[in-house]
Structure formats: C-alpha cells, structure tokens
Specification:
The protein is α+β, with helices and mostly antiparallel strands. Helices cover about 40% and strands about 20% of the residues. It is elongated, with a radius of gyration of 23 Å.
C-alpha cells in the first residue's frame, strides 16, 4: 500500500504509530491524540523536527494501534519504547512520571494524595498507575474542589472547621464522599460525567464573571480529569502475563502483556483456522480492542478502504479459509 494511502486510512483517534523502511526495519515509534493528523505532519513542515527529514524519506510502511484514550496511547508508546527503542527515537517514551492516586479513608485524615508507589495499609486504596504527576495533581484538585473529602475528617479545628462548614461538609457525610470519589476514579461513566459537568459549570460561571484566572485553572483541571479517567488498560497495577490477539482479512495482530505492561505488538499473515485458538485465549473484555486493531492493520497492509470487507474468523469467506497458515511475518 502506498504511504499516502496508508496516511488517508488512519483514523482520527488516539493511538501509537510505527514507521518501517523498505526492509521491514522499524524506524520510529510515536504517539498521537489524532493519528491521521500527527502522521500527516511528517510530510508537512517538520520545523523543530528537521532531524527526521532523512527518516521520512525512508518510510515504506505505516502501522498503527488505535487506543481508547490519549492516556492509553501515552502508556503504550512508553512501554513499547522501553522494550526496544528504534534508531530515530531519542527518548524511551515521553517525559511523564508514573504516579498513583492514594485514597485515604481513615476518619482522622481522609482525602486524596498523589504518590509514586503503592504501600500496603488498611486505610487506603490506590488507583492507577497514571502518567504525569502534574496532570494527576490537577485531577486530584478537581476532585477535591467538587468532593471535598478532606473536610469530612473527625476533629477539625480552626480554619479547617470553618471551611468545612462553608463547604457544607461534615464527618457524617464522609462515607458518601468516599463512595463518590471512588466511583470517579473507578471510571464509572455516570460519576465521571457528573463531576465533569460541575467543573464545566463552574468554569463557565467564572468566565462569565470575568474571573479568567480561575476559569483557566478550572479548564486545566477538566483536561487533567479527562486524562485520569480516560480508558487505560495497557498498563496494569497487577504484574500479569497474557497475549491479546485479533484477526481480520488474513492478518493476525498480537499484543504482548508482560508484568502488566502491553509492551509489544506484531502483525503477520494468518489463516482464519490458524487464528481461532489464539483468539480463544484472548482474555474477556479485550476482543473489541484487538478486533479494531486487526481491521486497521488489514487496511493499512492491503489497502482496503472499506471496513465492510473485513470479517472476523468466526465467519470466514472461502478465500480467507484457503489462506495459507504458513504465514509471512510482517512485523
């Protein structure tokens, strides 16, 4: 498939892209909040990326993984580059620092904190990992702004007790606040949407009152909240090992998760029959991610513009069933 056609076939979605040369060697791995726009930029004015001009001239194939959020794309890029860094990459996947959010539930000091490690304790729950300490601290500030759990502690004194009264918070409401905060950090769609809507209301109110500094701060918190609660499964808190596989139009895509990190993806030609046992071993819940990216791989590899032609191996066409299982590796 011509590189120009591959660029046009990319979705306008977050993801990770990979460039290969004519011999199949990986030149570069990057991430994007919009795959098509980002990849197209390499054929525009490179400006501060002028050092990549020689690399662009060597690109013969484009591969991509469509992710469910920009945060997920950032983690996938980091994991892949830490496993193996191509020649034209300068750093192993972004500059964000991995962190966790600690939810303390004890009666004396409930609240949220951004921490760099998980420690076993009976009065705390951890969420994450997340990338970007600054963004996560802003997300914590957004949560505290609307759900001020810290002011529901027992034994508050002085200014903190006065602030709790102003905010309408009391120890009797602590459990409800803990439940509401947990729902947001568990990525419950309704809870996250409700919190976001309240932040947007306050931002727009601040802008309407010409309090532009506060409106700007609230806008940053909204963006940080979107980052923290966006779908992210390619880096897990548990050190699990498993493979995720998808198949479409004779192309098998396989993602390796090792020690809880999705750290590699490969593509190869494969028959429907050969793909079935690999698909059967894919953990429940991963099928949509794997299938979507198998279809994308098939489009980029074979030049198919319409996804209606791409079928799963559950109902292979005669031509697909006849495809040789002695596959030729393409990644």
């Amino acid at each position: 498939m011509a590189v120009a056609d591959a660029r046009a076939a990319l979705p306008s979605a977050p993801g990770v892209y990979r460039f290969r040369d004519g011999r199949g060697r990986v030149l570069y791995v990057g991430r994007a909040s919009n795959l098509r726009r980002r990849v197209d930029s390499y054929w525009g004015g490179l400006r501060d990326r002028a050092h990549l001009t020689r690399m662009v001239a060597r690109i013969a194939r484009i591969e991509a993984v469509a992710c469910d959020s920009a945060h997920e794309a950032a983690w996938l890029e980091r994991n892949v580059l830490e496993r193996a860094m191509p020649r034209w990459n300068r750093t192993p996947g972004g500059q964000e620092v991995p962190v966790y959010i600690r939810l303390d539930t004890g009666s004396r000091s409930p609240g949220l904190r951004t921490v760099h490690s998980v420690q076993s304790t009976g009065d705390a729950r951890y969420f994450g990992p997340y990338l970007g300490g600054a963004k996560v601290r802003l997300a914590v500030a957004a949560l505290h702004r609307v759900l001020p759990l810290a002011y529901a502690a027992d034994g508050l004194r002085g200014a903190e007790r006065d602030m709790a009264r102003v905010r309408g918070v009391a120890p009797a409401g602590r459990d409800a606040l803990i439940e509401a905060v947990s729902a947001v950090l568990d990525r419950d769609p309704a809870a996250a949407s409700t919190l976001r809507a309240e932040l947007v209301r306050r931002r727009d109110g601040a802008a309407g009152a010409l309090a532009f500094e506060l409106a700007g701060r609230l806008h940053e918190e909204i963006e940080a909240l979107d980052w923290a609660v966006g779908a992210q499964r390619v880096t897990l808190a548990q050190p699990r090992d498993f493979d995720v596989c998808g198949w479409a139009a004779g192309v098998l895509v396989r993602f390796e998760v090792r020690a809880g990190l999705m750290c590699a993806w490969t593509q190869r030609e494969c028959s429907a029959a050969g793909a079935r046992p690999l698909l059967a071993s894919t953990p429940a819940g991963w099928a949509p991610f794997a299938q979507r990216n198998a279809e994308l791989a098939a489009e980029l590899l074979a030049g198919r513009k319409g996804r209606a032609e791409v079928r799963s191996p559950a109902r292979p066409t005669p031509a697909q069933a006849a495809t040789s299982s002695a596959s030729t590796a393409v990644s």
